[in-house]
Design goal:
mainly alpha, 79% helix, Cucumopine synthase C-terminal helical bundle domain-containing protein
């Protein structure tokens, strides 16, 4: 597992400056640029949900709130769900590969400390993905559509 942790950590270190190729793949999955941002928006929501889920599991591990095997199973559910989405919905090959490899390492964790280390790394991965997806979301357009829609509401 140590080699996996080092490889993923080194990869994540590059993501502070270089946009991962997976983000461009998400953008390509959208319809004509400027007309639909559903894929980008859903990818953002999925990454945010994974962030929150892994954070809760990390807190459980730190506080030893639960059985190790149960928390591992919950972590695998988060990882497997997102690996599937990355593969089928967003064409995020690198992210999918990273998460599929994490699955076996979660199984290999024999104590809370090793699981915490792995979950923190995976959490960091999802934070990086959220960061980059946030940068490609057309916030001004989304806000103007929201403002236009809600300005017609009467109470």
């Amino acid at each position: 597992m140590e080699k996996y942790l080092q490889e993923v950590s080194a990869y994540l270190d590059t993501l502070w400056i270089d946009m991962p190729s997976d983000i461009e793949e998400i953008r390509k999955r959208n319809r004509i640029d400027g007309l639909n941002y559903g894929v980008v928006t859903m990818a953002y929501c999925d990454m945010e949900a994974a962030d929150a889920s892994l954070y809760q599991l990390i807190c459980m591990v730190i506080e030893r709130k639960g059985d190790l095997e149960t928390i591992k199973m919950m972590a695998k559910n988060v990882v497997d769900w997102n690996a599937g989405g990355m593969s089928s919905s967003y064409d995020m090959a690198k992210g999918c590969e990273l998460l599929k490899a994490a699955d076996k390492h979660i199984d290999a964790c024999q104590d809370f400390a090793s699981l915490e280390t792995l979950l923190r790394l995976l959490h960091r991965f999802f934070i990086h993905m959220t960061y980059w997806i946030d940068l490609i979301l057309p916030w001004a357009k989304l806000s103007s559509v929201y403002d236009e829609s809600t300005s017609k509401l009467t109470f």
